[in-house]
Amino acid sequence: MTRYCVSPLRYGRYLRDSGLFGANVSIIPKLIPGEKAQKALGLVVDEDVKSVGTSGRNLEKSMPLLKQAGVTIN
């Protein structure tokens, strides 16, 4: 079982390290309250995602966290 997991994990790491991987985080206020939006963006930082696209909300409160982690906002 382990050998089946290694290849996708290595490929994911390659994508992340090469800058080819990013996340799209939709944080529409009506659907995602402020606290949950912060948690979602915190997860992006925790998982070392370096490129993020967002929609639905001003990121003013989250920008310091994202900038400190070296996240590029697209």
TrEMBL record:
| Organism superkingdom | Bacteria
What is this protein identified as? Uncharacterized protein
